[in-house]
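> example.struct
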């Protein structure tokens, strides 16, 4: 089977576009850092000198990232929780404060969904996706902002969303949740600018990570045809954009949604479930117009 994602050694050694001490003295919290994009973000921030708080549900995944960060010479605090639990999220921010005096950057990367035709969604399935991707992200944003306000410290939030401007058939639940995160981010970018807090979103297109395995082979095979570059992007493409937005290069950027998608947002339709004949076979509509 095709291998998706980077090896640990690649994450530690691939050349970066930034100077090695760019983030020295800063602390970052990255959710979903045990795998894929989140792991690449955490390791990249660590390689640039940041101290890391990493979270996710499964401690064993976090342990692997913790070991990698230690190899990169970074200080790290792993903390297992579900971002769907607001009290646990408050506890996470407290733990970050106790260990590092607080964080400077928050990267909300944890998330996920399953492909299914929207007409078949159960209430529980829909709510699980919205609860994780929208509510969970919100609990993290609010807890971090409260801590920054109480410390009179500035902060930067980067929310990892998806390319949802035209919708994405097969994952309507996640499109709804991510569009919610984008609207939330733009709104609180305004409310929280007086606190020195910047809030931006990153919308990845198809990125080669192990998380891709939840999609059917047919959908995965067609994915490179949905962008101008005609390939998968990499977790490092996303990680380096996060560095730009969360770090000093992003000091005058807030309320923005930056796509790292090989041009998918302007070209190529993205299906995560089989296309109905309606879209594959030339045909006339059986439904009369007026
Ligand atoms: C972003 C870009 C877009 C995707 C577009 C594709 C192109 C871009 C590629 C993007 C890739 C990625 O995002 S890659 C990352 C993908 N990785 C993942 O998404 C990992 C899988 N996702 C998750 O684990 C998610 O956290 C989540 C879907 C919310 C499930 O979390 P939990 O299991 O903890 O949730 P619970 O509260 O227990 O509820 C589970 C219920 O969800 C429903 N459910 C769960 N899996 C189901 C399934 N395969 N088919 C039907 N229904 C399902 C059922 O109703 C379950 O109930 P019961 O029936 O009672 O159990
Ligand atoms: N790969 C891609 O092409 C794209 C990915 N994205 C998004 O980017 C993000 C990262 O994706 P990717 O790395 O590919 O996928 P992964 O599935 O590898 O990563 C998702 C991470 O989120 C964590 N997570 C999920 N639910 C929770 C929760 N309730 N609480 C805490 N942590 C949680 C998981 O860890 P654990 O299971 O241990 O909790 C996992 O480490 C996701 O939000 C994804 O939807 C968006 C567009 C495209």
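> example.seq
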């Amino acid at each position: 089977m095709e291998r998706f994602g980077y090896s640990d050694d690649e994450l530690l050694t691939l050349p970066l576009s930034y100077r090695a001490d760019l983030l020295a003295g800063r602390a970052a919290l990255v959710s979903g850092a045990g795998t894929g994009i989140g792991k690449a973000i955490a390791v990249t921030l660590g390689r640039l000198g940041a101290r890391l708080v990493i979270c996710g549900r499964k401690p064993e995944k976090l342990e692997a990232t913790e070991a990698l960060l230690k190899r990169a010479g970074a200080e790290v605090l792993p903390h297992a929780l579900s971002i769907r639990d607001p009290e646990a999220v408050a506890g996470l921010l407290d733990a970050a404060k106790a260990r590092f005096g607080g964080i400077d950057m928050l990267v909300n990367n944890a998330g996920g969904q399953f492909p299914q035709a929207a007409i078949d969604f159960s209430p529980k399935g829909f709510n699980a996706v919205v609860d994780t991707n929208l509510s969970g992200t919100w609990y993290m944003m609010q807890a971090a902002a409260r801590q920054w306000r109480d410390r009179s410290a500035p902060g930067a939030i980067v929310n990892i969303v998806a390319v949802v401007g035209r919708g994405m058939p097969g994952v309507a639940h996640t499109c709804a949740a991510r569009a919610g995160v984008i609207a939330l981010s733009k709104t609180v970018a305004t409310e929280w600018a007086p606190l020195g807090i910047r809030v931006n979103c990153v919308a990845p297109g198809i990125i080669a990570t192990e998380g891709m395995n939840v999609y059917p082979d047919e959908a995965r095979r067609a994915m490179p045809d949905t962008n101008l570059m005609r390939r998968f992007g990499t977790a490092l493409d996303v990680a380096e954009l996060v560095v730009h937005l969360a770090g000093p290069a992003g000091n005058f950027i807030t309320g923005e949604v930056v796509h790292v998608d090989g041009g998918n947002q302007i070209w190529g339709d993205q299906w995560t479930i089989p296309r109905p004949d309606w879209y594959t076979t030339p045909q006339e509509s059986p439904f009369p117009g007026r």
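> remarks
The mean pLDDT is 96.
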